[in-house]
Amino acid sequence: MVRRLLPMVQILWPAFVVAGILEMLVFASFDPSDLSLGAWQPERLTTYSLTFFLFWALAATSSGVSHWLMSQGAPALRPRLSRN
Question: What's the CA gap between 84 and 50, in Å, rounded?
Answer without folding.
Answer: 60
